[in-house]
Automatic annotation (TrEMBL), chain C:
PANTHER family: ABC TRANSPORTER ATP-BINDING PROTEIN ALBC-RELATED. Its EC number is 3.6.3.-. This is Putative ABC transporter ATP-binding protein YxlF. Keywords: ATP-binding, Hydrolase, Nucleotide-binding, Transport. The gene is yxlF_1. Residues 7-241 form the ABC transporter domain. It comes from the Bacteria. It comes from Gimesia aquarii. InterPro entries: AAA+_ATPase, ABC_transporter-like_ATP-bd, ABC_Transporter_VariousFunc, P-loop_NTPase. It holds the Pfam family ABC_tran. One of its GO terms (molecular function) is ATP binding. Residues 282-301 are annotated as: Disordered. Gene3D superfamilies: P-loop containing nucleotide triphosphate hydrolases. It is an enzyme of class 3 (hydrolase).
Length: 442, 541, 301
């Protein structure tokens, strides 16, 4: 068959090797670090910023692990992921945590892994534990885990956003939010943290929403360079300012009605109208700003001859609706007024009195609050587009009505906020349920 | 805790061994007889029996002197191949391990666990692969370099060479293990902070049997299922007559610690409503029952802290306040736990009751145990090191045996495969073989993958189905064979779990099965290596 | 007594097969041999003629395809007979990480020998093969010749009745070869039977009583060395140096007896004998250059 001599065959091999080497070298030669050096792949890597170090911090153990596994890291990750699931099923939490760490060593730049496992630790694992301190520990673990992800990946604004969301929503909005917010400032491990917060979570001893705001701001900063794929850009960029509102609101929920709260609302208004409101967002009909003057409209319309002033107005309006811009503007504005503060305070006091069984005093406070609140709503009707605002009013009415029932008093024909009550009947059963559980009413 | 210390069925295991081993031998003999008769006629037939007889002759004539001589040779060879360099890796690992491990978990209890885990894993991952390589490499190398020629032309049986190799590597590995184990022990002791030193114990638990009662108080085998995928624990509902009843046998004064009966529990909570979150857990209560004396002694209400050890120490003498107002004890009567509560046969019955309405407590057999006087940490630790020694010996035996009939690299791959399969896939294989897994046949799975057919749809009738079923049956049978033959290495890693969790290694549930598993392979390994060397021309071509 | 057969081979055939059992090489074809006690028997033949195969069959390292083997009256696969056998393999397959003492001790332990005897015998053998200076060095540092020597010592550790040597002189310098030959002859004096195979004919000629020549796995020639090499119709005369006249006279005498003179000239010594002589001289008169007996030397004197 083969008529070539051994020498010819060897020569053929050499030629084949050389021929094959040419594309290998042309494609694969590593870059020396200078611009434009290296093979085609190296140049593409530089061009599209695919090198390890351009993605974030390089963990040497992670890099060496991937090297050792050669091409098998996908398989190894899959196996580990299955292990992690199994540990979760068997409630082996310490092992779950360390397995997740190993997965991360293998896949340090895969955003979904960070996202999912961070969430898993802070929400799912946390909820499996019975004691609130333990739950808080796992929320912290989730945050710490995501923090690491942020360090390793400079180009995912999503991750910063998720961190911020854990600081904000998980700590501030869980069932256990009162304790979580307390622990956020004084960690349950008092011995270790000396009655202070866990420095890895809250180094400056701030409110959880303030920290959340910082992280949202970081996310916004990154978002200018790297596109996020989480939600509509405008909503994404609104997050820090919402955190500011949440901060102010949380104080209120806890019954703090002092200057700090009012300042927080004022700051919120300022941020909302001067920073977020003045940011340009691109709509199908060119850029718009949410906080506008007639000059802005004209100016924006003039930038492109295909766009009319009517277009700009239309899209501004739509975007304002989407972001609930006008509501939050009004809310923040209204919260700085004495009347609003008094209304909130009266309702809050009424609830507290109710809780401690002082029904007569509670009744007085609730009625006062309802009156004041009705005034506020009259003044700022747009507040009625927000759930929290509606619920606050409804809750006051429910408790007030309950006291009347208790004492066998008839409900008067007319009372403040009656229009609200009638309009929002659909929400009542759910709220009644919540209140029953909260106050232990049978 | 996920490990369930089920006592080992020694007799059953032995019977099982006899069945598998006996049938394998029988099949081998029959096959040899048939092949022998076909190729060599009557001479072949008698030859088979002569061969069998030979094994017994040689096995009974092996000389300790010669085996020892070969053992020394083996050890010398390994040492002069600079095997002790492994200690350098070991030292480097330990020098830097502290840095990486200290950050791994923030809780001292988890920290201790990760230290112990690291030490035991590091030792086994260093020693076992090295012994595997040595065991698989030495004999083929001996044959390849023909150094074995000078040995087999001396009056030494070939089986003695095998035994010498096995013994040599075992001794060498044992020495390395002892040194590493000692260093590891010192390292753990120094690394664990003062505040967590109390974690370094070997608890000796006594486990009981568990039954449940439902909310009406009728006996059931299991409690409620709250929808957990893992049906390890069963739940009892609070403020109903639902109980978990643990029965411990063989309890007497010697099980007391400082004259106290110590119960350790770790139940799981399931809440149907938030309840009081700030208390830190759900309330529950033990009731000690002695039906002979009609005694029901309740404990005070206890808080169940989830995923941690809840310890209840009951003083030996306790005031019995007779809450149900019947039986012989009057209010305020002093009773003795071991004399009155434990019945005359040494049984202690403990009922567990959840006290909060609408909340559930989940438990399984190992979740409540009587903690008897602790043993030193060293006791459990050394047993765990012994738990590394056993698989090491097994790996050496398998490696040497396999290297009797294949070349070095092939032997390494084969042994490695067996170890990995035995370590990771035993459960998976059982799942397939027990028929729990749907459409588990290899060809069938391929067919379904390619045709996008889900596993519920029946295969269409016809020749395809016929072929698939025939081939799959063959594969499944082969798998069955592998399942029988491949050792279950998972047994050994259990021992590590005990020590990590602060327990002494259970003799019945871990140590004994490990020893038996290893011992079961001695005879088969010797037989296989005897015949593969006997029938082999030692000329490596 | 002398006729007691130590090795009996009848009809021995060895066929090497490949993995699938197909015939590859017929290494030995119907070989029949008998080696008697006390003789030195040489197996000769070019490379690949089946010498080593025969030896390995005798030792049970290979299994015969056909035919029978009896060594010391036992089948080749019997292990106990090895108590009385010594074997020097082709390349001295020894454990290179052991030193000479450890090597002999290790092999000695495989025999039923008391510890004391084993140690004495090991020390004696090391001296005998001339490795006293290197007994603590690992074998991997040994030269080829030293390896052969320790190989021989290893083969003799049990004071065997039958010694099998595979290429005993290969790789040795002439001095070593001479030593080896001397030791082989010594074995014969002790009444031992030696079976050696070699392709170095001179060595075989010097020591063997009987030889067999194998070619292509078949026995071609067998018999006593003198018988095989004796040229029946030639006479050789060796004298001291003669004058030309004397040579002429001798030619005449030969012619008178109807003989015919083949060649008459000065005999050339073999290189081997020259080499041996040189070494001997060097030992006797260290530090001086050895001047062989040549024409020039004569002239200068």
């Amino acid at each position: 068959m083969n008529k070539l001599t051994s020498k010819q065959r060897k020569l053929a091999y050499v030629i084949a090797i050389i021929v094959l080497l040419i594309p290998v070298i042309w494609l694969g030669m590593p870059s020396t670090g200078e611009e434009g050096s290296g093979g085609e792949l190296a140049q593409l890597r530089v061009k599209h910023e695919l090198g390890e170090s351009t993605l974030g911090d390089v963990d040497p153990s992670s890099a060496s692990m991937n090297f050792v596994l050669l091409g098998l890291r996908g398989i190894a990750t899959n196996l580990l992921w299955m292990d992690a699931n199994d540990y979760q099923k068997r409630k082996e939490w310490a092992k779950l945590r360390s397995t997740v760490d190993s997965i991360i060593l293998l896949q340090p730049h895969y955003m979904k892994v960070w996202d999912f496992q961070g969430w898993n630790l802070a929400y799912n694992v946390s909820a499996e534990w019975d004691a609130v301190e333990d739950r808080y520990f796992w929320v912290k673990e989730g945050i710490k885990f995501l923090n690491e992800g942020v360090q390793r990946n400079e180009r995912f604004p999503e991750l910063d956003w998720k961190v911020a969301n854990l600081h904000g929503q998980k700590v501030g909005r869980s069932d256990e939010w009162r304790l979580f917010r307390k622990f956020y400032k004084v960690d349950p491990d008092t011995e270790r943290y000396e009655d202070g917060p866990d420095p890895e979570i809250n180094p400056e001893r701030l409110d959880n929403y303030q920290v959340a705001k910082e992280h949202f701001l970081l996310a916004n900063e990154k978002e200018l360079k790297h596109k996020q794929h989480l939600q509509m850009r405008m909503l994404f960029r609104a997050s820090p300012w919402h955190a500011q509102f949440d901060y102010a609101n949380a104080m209120q929920r806890e019954g703090t009605f002092g200057k700090q709260r009012t300042d927080a609302w004022a700051q919120g208004f300022k941020d909302w109208t001067t920073i977020f409101g003045r940011e340009e967002f691109i709509t199908p009909k060119g850029p718009i700003v949410l906080e506008w003057t007639e000059d802005d409209i004209k100016d924006l319309a003039n930038r492109d001859e295909n766009i009319s002033e009517a277009d700009v107005r239309h899209w501004t309006n739509r975007y304002q609706d989407t972001s609930n811009y006008r509501f939050w503007r009004t809310r923040a504005l209204s919260e700085s007024e004495t009347e609003t503060i008094d209304a909130h305070k009266a309702i809050y006091d009424g609830e507290q009195l109710f809780r401690s069984g002082k029904f007569d005093e509670a009744n007085v406070q609730l009625e006062k609050g309802m009156q004041l609140y009705a005034k506020v709503l009259n003044k700022y009707p747009s507040l009625l587009s927000e759930d929290l605002a509606i619920e606050e009013g409804l809750q006051a009415i429910i408790l007030w009505r309950y006291i009347h029932d208790l004492k066998g008093l008839p409900i008067p024909d007319s009372y403040p906020l009656k229009p609200l009550w009638n309009k929002e009947q659909g929400r009542v059963p759910q709220l009644e349920n919540d209140l029953r559980r909260r106050y232990g009413i049978q | 805790m996920s490990f369930d210390p089920i006592p080992y069925d020694l007799l059953g295991a032995f019977k099982y061994f006899l069945v598998v081993f006996g049938s394998a031998m029988l099949i081998a003999v029959v096959v040899c007889l048939i092949v022998g008769t076909l190729t060599r006629g009557a001479k072949g037939f008698t030859g088979v029996f002569r061969g069998i007889f030979d094994f017994f002759v040689q096995i009974t004539h092996v000389s300790c002197r010669r085996i020892w001589s070969l053992t020394v040779l083996t050890i010398r060879e390994a040492l002069r191949q600079k095997i002790l360099f492994v200690f350098i890796i070991f030292a480097v690992l330990f020098m830097f391990a502290g840095w990486f491990l200290s950050g791994a978990a923030d809780r001292p209890d988890l920290q201790v666990q990760s230290y112990i885990d690291f030490v035991l894993k590091a030792i086994s991952w260093l020693v076992i692969p090295i012994m595997l390589l040595l065991a698989c490499w030495s004999l083929p190398e001996d044959i390849k370099k023909r150094t074995i020629h000078t040995v087999v032309t001396k009056p030494a049986y070939r089986i003695e060479i095998v035994m010498g190799r096995m013994l040599g590597f075992t001794l060498l590995g044992s020495a390395i293990l002892v040194v590493m184990g000692t260093i590891g022990y010192i390292w753990i002791n120094r690394q664990v902070p003062e505040t967590a030193q109390y974690k370094l114990v070997s608890k000796v638990p006594v486990y009981g049997e568990i039954v449940f009662t439902d909310r009406e108080g009728a006996l059931t085998k299991t409690g409620l299922n709250v929808g957990d995928i893992w049906d390890f624990r069963s739940y009892i509902e609070g403020a109903t007559k639902a109980r978990a009843i643990y029965k411990f046998t063989g309890i007497d004064e010697s099980d007391a610690i400082d004259d106290k009966l110590v119960l350790e529990s770790s139940f799981e909570a399931f809440r149907t409503h938030k309840g009081n979150m700030e208390k830190g857990g759900i309330l529950y209560q033990f009731i000690f029952v002695n039906e002979d004396k009609n005694l029901r002694v309740p404990s005070r209400p206890l808080i169940n802290k989830e995923y941690s050890d809840n310890v209840l120490e009951v003083k030996r003498k306790l005031k019995y306040d007779n809450p149900e107002g019947k039986g012989e004890g009057d209010a305020g009567t002093e009773i003795d736990i071991f004399d009155d509560v434990v019945d005359k046969d040494g049984n202690l019955t403990v009922e567990v009751q959840c006290l909060e309405a609408g909340q559930l407590l989940g438990m399984a057999r190992p979740d409540l145990f009587v903690r008897t006087p602790d043993r030193a940490f060293l006791a459990g630790y050394s047993k765990a090191v012994f738990g590394i020694w056993l698989p090491m010996v097994l790996v050496i035996m398998l490696g040497v045996t396999i290297s009797c009939f294949v070349k070095g690299p092939v032997a390494i791959l084969t042994t490695l495969t067996i170890v990995l399969v035995g370590f990771m896939s035993k459960e998976y294989m059982t799942e397939i073989l027990s028929g729990q897994m749907q459409a588990s046949g290899a060809i069938e799975a391929w067919y379904r993958l390619i045709t996008h057919m889900n596993s519920q749809t029946a295969l269409p009738d016809g020749p395809v189905k016929f072929i698939i079923e025939i081939v799959d049956a063959g594969i499944i049978n082969f798998l069955w064979l592998c399942q029988q033959v491949i050792p279950n290495f998972g047994i050994f890693s259990n021992m590590r779990e005990y020590v990590i969790k602060g327990f002494d290694v259970s003799w019945n549930a871990a140590l004994l099965p490990g020893i038996i598993t290893t011992a079961a392979y001695i005879l088969p390994c010797l037989i296989v290596s005897f015949y593969s060397l006997k029938l082999r021309e030692l000329e490596a071509k | 007594m002398d006729n007691e057969p130590v090795i009996q081979i009848s009809n021995l055939t060895k066929i090497y097969r490949d993995f699938w059992g197909r015939k590859k090489v017929r290494a030995l074809n119907s070989l029949s041999l008998e080696i008697k006690k006390g003789e030195i028997f040489g197996l000769l033949g070019p490379n690949g003629s089946g010498k080593t195969t025969t030896l390995k069959l005798l030792l049970g390292l290979l299994f015969p395809s056909e035919g029978d083997i009896k060594v010391l009256g036992q089948p080749a696969s019997n292990v106990e007979k090895n108590e009385r056998i010594g074997y020097l393999p082709e390349e001295s397959y020894l454990y290179r990480f052991l030193n000479a003492e450890e090597t002999l001790d290790f092999y000695g332990r495989l025999f039923k020998m008391p510890a004391k005897e084993r140690r004495e015998r090991a020390a004696e053998l090391i001296e005998k093969v001339g490795l006293g200076h290197a007994k603590r060095r690992q074998l991997k540092e040994y030269s080829k010749g030293m390896t052969r020597r320790i190989g021989l010592a290893q083969a003799l550790i049990n004071n065997p009745d039958l010694v099998m040597l595979d290429e005993p002189t290969s790789g040795l310098d002439p001095l070593g070869t001479d030593d080896m030959k001397r030791m082989i002859l010594e074995l014969k004096e002790q009444g031992k039977t030696v079976l050696m195979c070699s392709h170095l004919l001179a060595d075989v000629q010097d020591v063997c009583d009987r030889i067999a020549i194998l070619y292509g796995g078949e026995l071609k020639v067998m018999g006593r060395v003198e018988d095989l090499l004796k040229e029946q119709d030639e006479t050789q005369i060796m004298t001291s140096r003669l004058s030309d006249e004397a040579i002429k006279e001798i030619e005449q005498v030969v012619a008178k007896h109807n003989g015919k003179v083949g060649t008459i000239d000065h005999p050339t010594a073999t290189l081997e004998s020259l080499f041996l002589k040189t070494v001997q001289e060097s030992k006797d008169r260290p530090g001086q250059r050895f001047v062989p007996d040549t024409e020039e030397k004569k002239a200068s004197e």
